[in-house]
Amino acid sequence: MTSRRRITQQAAAWAAALALAASAGCSTRPPPASPDAPPEVVHHRGDRFQNRYVEFETLGTRAFWRWKFEQWRDGLPPPSPPAPRVAADHAFLDANAAAGAAMQTSVTWIGHATALVQMGGVAILTDPIFSERASPVSFAGPKRAQPPGLALDQLPRVDAVVVSHNHYDHCDLPSLVALAKQRGGSPLFVVPLGLRALLVEAGIDRVVELDWWQSTKVEGASGPVEIVLVPVQHWSGRRLDDRMRTLWGGYAVFAPGGSFYFAGDTGYSPDFADARARFAPRLVDGGFDLALLPIGAYEPRWFMKLSHMNPTEAVQASIDLGAKLTVGIHWGTFPLTDEALDQPPKDLDAARVARGLRDGSFVVLPIGETLGLLDRRGEATVAGAAGPPPPVPRSEPGVGQAAPPVRAARDS
Known about the structure:
Elements: H1 3-24, E1 44-45, E2 48-49, H2 61-74, H3 90-97, E3 106-111, E4 114-119, E5 122-126, E6 160-162, H4 173-180, E7 188-192, H5 196-201, E8 207-210, E9 215-220, E10 223-230, E11 250-255, E12 258-262, H6 271-278, E13 290-294, H7 301-304, H8 311-321, E14 326-329, H9 343-354, E15 362-363, E16 370-372
Parallel strand pairs: 5-6, 6-7, 7-8, 12-13, 13-14, 14-15
Antiparallel strand pairs: 1-2, 3-4, 3-16, 4-5, 9-10, 10-11, 11-12
């Protein structure tokens, strides 16, 4: 290796570390809650926000560099294959998007926390990131291990985009700007409080920002689809000086044909059980039809526990939500933390067996895979059965039906 190349690589490594530090360092604790604040806004702390169950404080730069030193010392994360990948079924997705009220309920994992959910006549995209790096700069920072399951120009029409918080691996401005320019007009962008200004500054106009428990609606072919911002345990920040100045959250979505829960990025907390209890009158058979829960970026626990669930905690969150089917996301795409890229599904299998969950109740998908779901009205069928859209060329489980979990193995 030439001296110039070595210097370039070292500079890129330091730039990557600094990019991560911009999202992880700088200790911040919002002021205490006002004793007069009503329960619905107790998370408002002056010009900052706070979690509901912990007085959360982002760890300081000293803790961050301790982690990075230990990571370097121990050679972490270990080499590993990325998430498996399959060719996306473009024909099904495009036809399903055009099917109107006959749309089959489905979820497609595009990578990391990006998923496309087609339900109730609308298509909702979660935390879209299509960039090569999860970073404020294009030349350094965590680099994608697998291409997205669908490229931006391969997406069917998207009706709504939900953004959980402003961290770079969840709020990727180049991707959001491109989506706003989709043919046929911009989707509706739904963001937590304080985040609208960032999108508007980037030239995105069709943005709604919500506080926890507030909602907005998107009109679908089968009727209105309601999108509710729900509390999760996390934090926000894109610079060293803006810690917790914008809100974060997950989303509960209610469509004529079913419901789904998207957690975004979160540590484990009672917020999952609270969401289920709050929406109990709207949940068929006592739980969400589908949950998209993060299962990666959890090591080391001393640094990540309050803001990132591990697979054992994700299993408990799925139980708390009463989810009929849970898909693990936020793994295998970007090397963000100390565990190997392929470790989360292994830990998930062990956690699922330990809790006695049946096969097929909590699964991981290859990037690009589409999973068909039974819609609770009985008007759509499992992807692969009869109906206006062409079938997904695989046998897919419906909500509550068994299917073997996909193992994270090297894509062939």
